[in-house]
Amino acid sequence: MASQLNAFSTNIQFSEYFFSLDGPTKHRYCEKVNEIGFDPYALKKSDFSEDFAMIPRVEYPDIVNYLVLQTSWATNQQMKAYKSMDAFNFFISGWVNVLQMKEVSEDKVVVFARVNHSQRARDTPLKAWILAEKNGIVLTGHCDCMAGLSEACSHIGAMLFACETGARMQNSGPSCEQKQGNKTHNRGTKQFFFNISKCEGKPAIFSLIEPYNELFVAQEEALPNPLTEQFFKEEYMKLGFESLLSKGKEITIDINKEQCLLIESSTREQSNSRIWYQQRAGRITASKLKSVCHTKFN
Ligand SMILES: [Zn+2]
Predict the structure, then answer these.
(1) I want to staple 152 with a disulfide (CB 3.0 to 4.6 A). Which of 71, 124, 169, 294 is the partner?
(2) Has the keyword Protease been applied to this entry (predicted)?
(3) What CA–CA distances, in Å, run from 151 to 143, 234, 251, 288?
(4) What's the pLDDT tens digit per position in 250-275?
(5) 173 CA distance to ligand 1 centroid (A)?
């Protein structure tokens, strides 16, 4: 097992998440990543595409195939009453954030999404991904919730329902031949989406449609990268105070008003929030400001 892990890890950049796993779970995750050729958790937002046309053509039988036959996560009876499943309700409640796609090969694609917690809507969303054939056959999946380690959970299920809806919308769109004559139809659809965007609430279908999917960007993605990622380098540990000061002058910090407000609103729970830890590292927080102003270096 160990030798296989070593062989896999030579040219793939693994995520911190991977290193936090152990035993058979780590080995299985490694197998999945090896099949894909990259670790979806190690990618940045910019590595993915949000192009609607890249959503695999998942249909209802593909969902049954994956959740019932392949993973035994759900039963036929549950699927028969899928509208009462958590997975379906997570999707229609708008808890699946923007679907992000990355092509694996000519016929396969990885879909990644953040899915809000079932109970704790304000917690950092869970991260789920699936590997699917572009024609909709789901090959494997993963989620960083406890249940997701076994390839299927409500969050993966919710993503599958999101893909299924996306695929249905693609199928109901005009074909290439029809496109020319259907400009009016397209304008009508656009106007329809625009009109419902003015209503109160956040229709789940908007998580699939640009530009409305911006409403579904997980808070963590809209926040600036933690300062520790921008500042910290192993080599700086050996530098003296003066050298650190001059290094500091080379660094520029870009932060806009929206990000400031978002940091404030998403860290109100302080130590109960993971974002609070991430964003305070490297910052002079209000409670430290006085000491900073009064500290003498000499
Ligand atoms: Zn999950």
Answers:
(1) 71
(2) no
(3) 7, 36, 42, 44
(4) 877 778 887 787 788 777 777 766 67
(5) 31
